[in-house]
Write a structure and sequence with these properties.
The protein has 137 residues and is mainly beta. It has one domain: Cupredoxins -  blue copper proteins (Immunoglobulin-like). The protein has one helix and nine strands. The chain is globular and about 40 Å long. The N and C termini lie far apart (44 Å).
């Protein structure tokens, strides 16, 4: 099976400028991958976690790896609580894989959306993740 990987990481400009150094990126606390698979077998399409998902915290840099196990093309857009788009990957065909790396710089609910055709509007293809404040240990 051929596997295609499309990667585009986008960091919010407000976070970059807030650091004071235009070349410095956001302060990453943790960096990890979250594996998802596509389920487009019913009326509602979904991104489903392959393994247990960690507690998402402000400052995390997460790479969402999506295995398109469905029957249709799918893409992925990561939307921050304030509506900014913090990660995008173009659509991939069934059997292919896409990756999106996103910096979780805000507390609140992030949306993982598929914007192909009517997948979001008609089939509610959206997964919500809650990002909690950084907890000092």
């Amino acid at each position: 099976m051929a596997r295609t990987v499309a990667v585009l990481a986008v960091a919010p400009m407000a976070l970059l400028s807030a650091c004071g150094d235009d070349d410095a990126g956001p302060d990453v606390e943790r960096s990890y991958d979250v594996e998802l698979r596509v389920d487009d077998s019913g009326e509602e399409y979904k991104f489903v976690a392959v393994d247990d998902v960690p507690d998402f915290r402000v400052g995390d840099e997460v790479t969402f790896i999506v295995d398109n196990t469905g029957a249709l093309p799918h893409d992925l857009q990561v939307q921050a609580p304030d509506g900014d788009i913090v990660g995008v990957a173009p659509a991939v065909s069934p059997g292919d894989t896409l990756e999106v790396t996103a910096f979780l710089g805000q507390v609140g609910i992030y949306r993982l959306n598929c914007l192909v055709d009517d997948h979001l509007t008609l089939h509610d293809m959206q997964t919500l993740i809650e990002v909690d404040p950084l907890i000092e240990q």
